[in-house]
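Case study 2.
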Amino acid sequence: MTRTRARGDGTTGRFANAGLGAAGLAAFLALGEAVPRLGIVKERYFPPTSRIMGALGDEIDDAGFWRDLGDTLTGWSLGLAIAVGAGILVGVVVSVVPYLREATASTIEFLRPIPSVALIPLAVLLYGTELRSVLLLVVYASFWQVLVQVMYGVRDVDPVAEETARSYGLGTWARVRHVLWPTALPYVMTGVRLAAAVALILTVTAELVIGAPGLGARIAVAQTSQAVPEMYALIVVTGLLGLLINVGARSVERYALAWHQSVRGEVAV
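Prediction:
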């Protein structure tokens, strides 16, 4: 089978998957319209899809919506950037420095399972409803996603390649750049993709619970005001954000790993 054939099959498969996804979404929207119309659930608690879409249109026309959307994206992007940078740096240092992994293993395993929402009282106590409260929760949750993947990636380095680099006289930085980093990069990109989703979840959660400016706070206001269609419309926006972030993260991953076998998808002739 030629490379052209493999690429053609991959394109056809992507179009087929996109078609199935669109059909599933259409069926879901139709179900959301039919269930309240048929009286299975009360429209007061679950409005039809058409009313939710109308409320979404009203939200889009509101300048306050775009301001809150910008606040959410600001908290998400800043928190994710800090978590990714810190996770990569700490992960490489801990994995490369002798005995440091063993010295920090118990601490990492103790801190990693702590739910970020458990830190909400601390965040409020330290920073109130400021952006820094959101960043504290987002960074804490996303950091572990990247750190663990980096450590797994470093552990996967081929010992033969490592010893070969040493025999050629490569220093620590050169070995990190030419041996460790190419091996760990697929793991790093997986960690970044997971961290991006977790960062969005924690951003909206922090805004919803703490009251920091953003879509989460706007959802809380809609809920307390009994503006149910608007509340669902805002929830739809957060879902679309998650979808776009996931698609964007996968695109970046494919670009960064264009040289990797998993992305190239070449089939032997």
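The chain has eleven helices and no strands.
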